[in-house]
Amino acid sequence: MTSWTAEALNTAPNSDNKIHGDTLAKKYGFEGGLVPGVTISAYLVHPAIELWKEDWLDRGFANCCITSPLYDKETFTVDIDDSNKNRLNTTLVRSNGVVSANAEVSITSELPYPPIRRGDLVANKDYRPPEATMAIWKNLQKEGCRAFRYTWGGNNPLIYLKDSKNLPELLQPELGGFSNLSFLLGCSNWVLAGNGYMKAWLHLQTISQNYRSVKIGTDLIAEMKVNDVYAKKGHEFVDVAVDLYDEQDDECVMTINLIAIFKLRGM
Question: What is the mean pLDDT of residues 168-192?
């Protein structure tokens, strides 16, 4: 496979992150609601899952960088180059020729030692976080963050293509499929937003390491720590480490380093 083409799906048009809705996105100069960064990342690794199948779910690595918006129903192509037995580079190109994102994707030959669950307080479903500010993130960096529980599957599992039959077979929920990257990286988005309320924010980059595949019905615990918070060119950024654990045995299934703009210039 040298390329893969599909139609983009905005998986979060009604999200609490208003940048995925048309109204606020257009206010900030975008064409419409942005396709989530976690969904774009799933597009970037789709060819790797087709190539390596469950091996990638069990020990895959991905460094995904979002550089330009992608919009709902927009046709895109993922170009694949520098591929070898255990590594490939992918680039997502919009129909107008603009590069939207790129990734380094690989199979990890020797997995790093997995993190151990700290036992952070798991937030109640009705928990309402404080508004995200530099001071709030710095306080959470010092005092620690709340953990959250997420379940893969259910009545409406998160998928990254409109027709689930276009997913790799092992990811199709109706076939008892494994979780996809859009959901797993989504957990890092949700735990970030769970600790600090943000009206509109941009997912920029994730560096993730798989430790094992996630089956339908698995309850995950997401623990987060703040690595850094800083300002640049008028935007305010937060850098966090998120570890996902299978609640049943406390074993790590994925580590994620997420960098995001939590406050856009002018907000």
Answer: 94
The 3-class secondary structure across the chain, one letter per residue, is CCEEEEECCCCCCCCCCHHHCHHHHHHCCCCCCECCHHHHHHHHHHHHHHHHCHHHHHHEEEEEEECCCCECCCEEEEEEECCCCCEEEEEEEECCCCEEEEEEEEECCCCCCCCCCCCCCECCCCCCCCECCHHHHHHHHHHCCCEEEEECCCCCCCCCCCCHHHCCHHHCHHHCCCCCHHHHHHHHHHHHHHHCECCCCEEEEEEEEECCCCCCCCEEEEEEEEEEEEEECCEEEEEEEEEEEECCCCCEEEEEEEEEEEECCCC
> What global pTM score does this model have?
0.95
Domain ranges of the chain: 3-108+116-263
Q: Using one digit for the tens of pLDDT, what is the confidence trace for 192-201?
A: 999 999 988 9
Quickly name the fold that domain 3-108+116-263 has. Answer: Thiol Ester Dehydrase; Chain A (3.10.129)
